[in-house]
Specification:
The protein has about 240 residues and is α+β, with helices and mostly antiparallel strands. Helix content is about 20%, strand content about 20%. Strand 12 and strand 13 form a beta hairpin. The chain starts with a helix and ends in a 12-residue tail after the last helix. The relative contact order is 0.20. About 5% of the residues have low confidence. The structure holds calcium ion (CA) (2 copies). One calcium ion binds next to helix 3.
């Protein structure tokens, strides 16, 4: 009896720790069904057009607070992501209305991370853009949509999904302005050096760059919510 007690206590602790580490599940978790929009800001408000949510659930469908959700941009070779200071909750004083936890930026691994709130939702609103040089370009796939980013629960080695990345600010400077429209038009007309329809210009993720995307760009331009770009980029 005296010998068994420590063993039973040990088993109890093991059970408790396994329960606490119950992993999030890719089959029950979900994300907003749109591309991720990299945006700018106005005054101290990060453009709400960039809001992107990931809802994390366990195997039993239970919502999971305090889980790190990361978006990996390693394969999004034409993206720029603002340094942590210019993300929500950073030292630059910018915030997004729906974000409850700060975004962290890991430049070495090209990933942005948010923690789920009490409802199990990680809210992203990422300040960033794409390269003006348009090289290397992430082009639309021949059959289907180019989804260069990946959503991961890294602490559990669990991948949720791939994700297309788009932006209205096509040069990462001066917010969304007429220069960006001319750069977008290169994709619309298939003008070299990008004659292969850049995925970042396909705002509705329809596998093309057309008038629908132009209308979406115009709506964003006239909102005036991305009149500034990040002053510094992590990559
Ligand atoms: Ca711009
Ligand atoms: Ca499109």
């Amino acid at each position: 009896m005296t010998r068994r007690l420590p063993i039973l206590i040990g088993l109890g602790l093991l059970t408790a720790s396994a329960s606490a580490a119950s992993p999030p599940s890719a089959s029950t978790s979900s994300h907003q069904n749109t591309p991720l929009r990299l945006v700018g800001y106005r005054a101290t408000a990060i453009d709400p057009a960039g809001t992107f949510t990931v809802t994390v659930r366990g195997l039993g469908g239970n919502l999971m607070p305090n889980v790190q959700v990361s978006i990996l941009f390693a394969n999004c070779t034409d993206t720029h992501i603002g340094v942590a200071a210019y993300q929500s909750g950073g030292s630059g004083g910018l915030s997004c209305a729906d974000c409850q936890n700060p975004l962290t930026v890991d430049a070495a691994n090209r990933r942005v991370t948010a923690i789920t709130n009490s409802s199990g939702v990680a809210v992203f609103d990422v300040v960033g853009s794409v390269t003006r040089s348009r090289s290397p370009v992430v082009a639309e796939a021949v059959n289907g949509v180019a989804k260069c980013a990946e959503i991961w629960f890294l602490a559990f080695n669990e991948k949720l999904d791939n994700l297309q990345v788009v932006t209205f600010d096509q040069d990462g400077a001066n917010g969304v302005d007429a220069i960006d429209l001319s750069l977008w038009a290169q994709d619309f007309y298939g003008i070299p050096p990008n004659s292969s329809l850049r995925a970042a210009s396909d705002y509705d993720a329809a596998g093309n760059v057309d008038g629908v995307d132009l209308a979406l760009w115009a709506a964003e331009f006239f909102s005036g919510n991305s009149i500034a770009s990040a002053p510094a980029y992590a990559w």
